[in-house]
Specification:
Blueprint (H helix, E strand, L loop, with lengths): L2 H22 L15 E3 H4 L9 E3 L8 H21 L11 H8 L2 H6 L16 H5 L14 H5 L8 E5 L16 E8 L2 E8 L7 H40 L5 H6 L6 H12 L6 H4 L5 H13 L8 H8 L9 H24 L3 H5 L2 H13 L13 H29 L19 H14 L18 H23 L19
Antiparallel strand pairs: 1-2, 3-4, 4-5
Helix pairs in contact: 1-18, 3-10, 8-10, 8-12, 8-16, 8-17, 14-17, 14-19, 17-18
Length: about 500
């Protein structure tokens, strides 16, 4: 009873608050580093209802974070979130399974007035019968694909020339009543024109093919959003890298300077991220997707146990998965490898200004302390080369932090605006009834994406070169930006692809 008016009121209040914040969000100038100490506490000390052992949250901040103002904002947001959860209808109707009808039912008009572009269903998902195969090679979901293991071939799950998207571990976790367990293992056949899903294996769980596909996509959505992005990128790698770098490298250390822009509002922003996504039963990780807070914590424990920093470096990722080269188009791979190459070459050129060789790296005691602090903070240490640290090792660590702050941030926030919005194509949950996901979750999913889609603090306009120690460093930084502009022009000349990260859309940090 009163579900429709309660939903309308919920949407109006939520959209009005978010739209005002979107329009009024201050653009903080990029500030030079200062010598300071970042204190931090265990995540579980603040949010014991959703344990994430080994995850750290900053409790002090750099001056440019404007921490007290942001803390007040976080308190208002969390209070409003609690009120909205109470206001929201307990049941809402299924979303329409058509683009314009979906937007009419779900999309708040206040977002239009705030100046955000309306999401557009990507062309390859319109009328698509094989969403898994389309998502597996592009956009936010392109990082899953791999070749089958020898055991999978021996067990008859996949042939040697097939490909796999494996989220079978999700099937071990119970879900909320009325929902299908997300995930499974998709087996895909390859041809020169693309992939096709041959089977979705669910361990004997007998689902109709259409329902199994939707459950597979829901698992991909949850894994990318909650565990790779909010947990792994925001609150593990980038938080830990910021704490280690600020605490162990002086404000004038060259490695501190090359990474400084990635720390812009990062620590206070990640406190906000944890409050919103990883704090308990009303967090979006537990309300948007299929699992309650206890199961989110359990799934996260598995991710943290398997954590490997190197797997976030694109060239290593594709080499390990056997997908550096494929007989079919793989737009995601080509996009991130091109941008990774630019970012890695930039850091290599930059470090060469200050370290003539590996011996110079090993002679820098601050670098050694920094590397040890990273190992102490991260869930698992970063593999090191035999014989000690090298210039290439330092470059790859720094380039990975920059890649996640620019390229991956763009893909999992801005590109996701089109790819993750339309729940009839990319659901967050799958009702066991076979209906489409509910309107309330679809609206909340839109709200989460809206908050992250921010056209300010852009890399090209933020004067990253002001972080340089000297003239040569400034020239290398400007050269990096020029090379990214060249890539932007080349990408535009090839024709726009909504699934790709474009340098003109990069922010200076993951929390900008």
């Amino acid at each position: 009873m009163f579900a429709a008016p309660r939903f309308a009121l919920y949407r109006r209040i939520m959209a009005g608050f978010l739209s005002a914040g979107f329009k009024d969000h201050p653009i903080e100038p990029l500030a030079a580093p200062v010598d300071t100490e970042i204190d931090h506490v265990p995540h579980d000390e603040l949010w014991p209802d959703l344990p994430l052992p080994g995850v750290h949250v900053a409790s002090s901040f750099i001056p440019s974070d404007q921490a007290e103002r942001r803390r007040r904002k976080i308190r208002v947001q969390m209070k409003l979130r609690g009120l909205l959860v109470d206001l929201a209808p307990k049941d809402s109707p299924p979303i329409p399974a058509e683009e314009q009808a979906f937007l009419e039912a779900v999309y708040p008009r206040e977002f239009d007035r705030a100046g955000a572009p309306r999401p557009v269903l990507p062309p390859e998902l319109r009328g698509c019968d094989d969403v898994v195969a389309q998502l597996a090679v592009r956009g936010p979901f392109g990082s899953f694909l791999r070749r089958p293991t020898p055991d999978e071939v021996a067990d008859g799950e996949a042939a040697e020339d097939e490909y796999v998207v494996d989220l079978a571990h999700y099937l071990d976790h119970p879900v909320k009543p009325g929902l299908v367990r997300p995930g499974g293992k998709a087996v895909l056949t390859a041809s020169p024109t693309g992939l096709a899903t041959r089977a979705i294996l669910r361990g004997g769980d007998d689902l109709a093919p259409g329902l199994a596909q939707r459950a597979m996509v829901a698992g991909m959505h949850e894994d990318i959003s909650t565990f790779r992005h909010n947990l792994g990128v925001h609150n593990v790698i980038l938080t830990d890298a910021a704490i280690a770098t600020i605490n162990r490298l002086s404000a004038r250390h060259p490695v501190r300077r090359v990474l400084q822009h990635t720390f812009h509002t990062l620590l206070i922003g990640n406190l906000e991220n944890c409050n919103a996504h990883l704090a308990g039963a009303t967090s979006f990780s537990a309300t948007l997707f299929s699992h309650d807070a206890q199961e989110v914590s359990s799934i996260a424990a598995g991710h943290l146990a398997r954590f490997d920093f190197e797997d976030f470096a694109p060239d290593v990722q594709f080499a390990r998965r056997g997908t550096t080269e494929t007989p079919f188009p793989y737009p995601y791979r080509d996009n991130v490898l091109e941008l990774w190459g630019v970012n890695l070459a930039y850091v290599q050129d930059y470090l060469a200004l200050y370290y003539t060789d590996d011996a110079a790296i090993r002679a820098d005691a601050a670098i050694a302390r920094w590397a040890d602090e990273l190992d102490r903070l991260l869930p698992n240490p970063i593999a090191r080369p035999d014989g000690g640290l090298t210039r290439d090792w330092v470059a790859r660590v720094c380039a990975t932090v920059i890649h996640l702050s620019t390229v991956e941030h763009d893909i999992l926030n801005n590109v996701a605006w089109d790819y993750n919005t339309f729940g009839f194509a990319v659901p967050t949950v799958v009702p066991a009834s076979g209906e489409q996901m509910d309107t309330l979750r679809a609206l909340d999913n839109l709200a989460v994406l809206f908050v992250t889609w921010r056209p300010f603090n852009m890399l090209f306009d933020s004067h990253v070169e002001s972080m340089a120690l000297d003239g040569p460093g400034r020239r290398v930084m400007l050269g990096w930006l020029d090379r990214l502009r060249e890539v932007q022009e080349q990408m535009e000349a090839r024709g726009h692809d909504p699934s790709l990260a474009y340098p003109a859309n990069f922010n200076i940090s993951v929390t900008n």
